[in-house]
Amino acid sequence: MYNWNWSVLWSPSADGASSYLGTLGFGLAWTLVVGLSAWCIALALGTVVGIARTIPAGKIARLADGYVEVLRSIPLIVQMFLWFYVAPDFLPDAAASAVKAWDRYNVLAAILCLALFTSARIAEQVRAGIQSIPTGQSNAAKAMGMETAQVYRHVLLPVAFRRVIPALTNEFVNIIKNTSVAFTIAVVELMAATRSMQEMTFQPFEAFTAATAIYLAVNLTAVKVMSMIEKSTRIPGYGHSGR
Amino acid sequence: MDFDLDVLLRAWPLLVQGFWFTIQITVIAALGGLVLGTLLAMARLSRFKTLSTVVGAYVNAVRSVPLLLVIFWFYFLVPFIAAWLTGASRPVEIKPITSCVVTFIMFEACYFCEIMRAGIQSIPSGQMAAGRALGMGYWTMMSNIVLPQALRNMLPILLSQTIVLFQDISLVSVLSIKDFFGAADFVAKRDGRPHEMYLAVAIVYLIACFTLSRGVKKLQRRIAIVR
Predict the structure, then answer these.
(1) Which chain A positions have a beta carbon within 8 Å of B202's beta carbon?
(2) CB-CB: which of B69, B91, B209 is closest to A211?
(3) What is the pLDDT of residue A114?
(4) CA of A206, closest CA in chain B: separation in Å?
(5) A7-233 fold
(6) CA gyration radius for chain A?
(7) Looking at residue A1, what is its pLDDT?
(8) How wide is the angle at C-alpha A151 spanned by C-alphas A145 and A152, nearest 5°?
(9) CA dist A231 → A125, A167, A186, B1, B154 (Å)
(10) Which of A42, A226, B44, B178 could form a disulfide linkage to A169, CB 3.0–4.6 angstroms apart?
């Protein structure tokens, strides 16, 4: 009923630049560029916000809570469209028209959107990681004369970061998956490449199978790398689960 | 930047329709996903090796690819499945809403499966041994002892996942389906008013999800006290 034809993967693509497998390869490259850039920003921002949520100073913690709540309550595609279609108009007129004329603004919008979206999730994990450490430890550090900053730097964060590695692995896999939403604002990442292959060849299942295999491979690699990091950073004698 | 409230008023009926559609799909997919997900969880924990391996592979595969890819997979696959089920010789034409419902049940089942698996495993094995000692069969024991407790323990997580589902429905707009976001997107492009439409959608989602997650937190606290 369905005519399988795997050779389309090797046949020249419609744009003539390479084979369809090459098209998917370019898509994967863009997925990784967008995903990894967003990941670096998200990790830095999420850590700061996560720490802010645990400090006793009321106002900052509440502000950080609000940041997380807002970013978690709006669907990703809506946030993507806000960054792409609405955000430039909040800039001064000259800057707004410059941004709109720039043909790569969609990539920047996707990176910013995914970075903020993921930073809220990372902040939640970092907060949980810090709060999972018994208060006796930070009290002891304070009793030894440490400042709040020193307590975080030397006592809380080294343990908290190790504890959240599995959760961060999950978030990394999520950011790679979420990069696919950037295809709605015309970033030619893996999902967009898959769609164009499907539309040009009329062989949807070959295109989708190939994309599925690529996503699985990327995510499996990410999980392997993260578990290596987890093993190499484990504190000797501190128990397998970091307890 | 100009902001015209009139645009929203004119789009109102379409937005309400879209919102209603999103809620309907959320409820159907959550209930369908829960039933199917529980069955998948039981299959994953089954002692029949082949069954648990096949189900495990399906659940892990769906969970590691983007929802958009899952949506496209089922959008093209469902006509073939329908043809196979009805014995038709050509792919059956399927309404977008049908494919949308099937997609979200199949997708959500994988996430609910993992939650229910944890829920089932959280019940002490002594209870199952006791059930067996009383002469209960597998299905009697599951439906009377294990599942009610598992469901109750996992209720807050299941509801949080349903809030995520409620947000995820917005992705069906890529199939030109007018869910809440799809309807707003349609008006935004037709009238050339992206600011009003996208901001309005964001605010409605924000209020809805914020209220719902507050409710889940409250429920979590109540359940925690009882236990």
Answers:
(1) 74, 78-79, 82
(2) B69
(3) 97
(4) 11
(5) MetI-like fold (1.10.3720)
(6) 22
(7) 73
(8) 165
(9) 19, 15, 39, 52, 31
(10) A226
pLDDT digit string, tens, across residues B127-179 = 999 999 999 999 999 999 999 999 999 999 999 999 999 999 999 999 989 99
Structure tokens at A14: 């419609």
Q: Please name the residue of chain A whose CA is at the shortest distance from the CA of residue B201.
A: A78
Domain boundaries, given as residue ranges, for chain A: 7-233
Chain B contacts of A120, Cβ < 8 Å?
none
- Pick from A242, A118, A229: nearest CA to A177: A118
C-beta atoms of B73 and A208 within 8 A: yes
Judge whether A170 is closer than 8 Å to chain B, CB to CB: no
Count Cβ–Cβ pairs < 8 Å, chain A vs chain B.
Answer: 106
Query: In this predicted model, what pLDDT tens digit does every residue of A204-235 receive, in sequence order?
Result: 999 999 999 999 999 999 999 999 998 998 88
Residues of chain B contacting A208 with CB distance shorter than 8 Å: 69, 72-73, 76
Q: Which residues pair with B4 in a beta bridge?
A: none
Cβ contacts of B167 on chain A, cutoff 8 Å: 73-76
The reply to whether A142 touches chain B by the CB within 8 Å rule is no
Question: Which residue is listed with tokens 């299941």?
Answer: B158
| B65/A212 CB distance under 8 A | yes
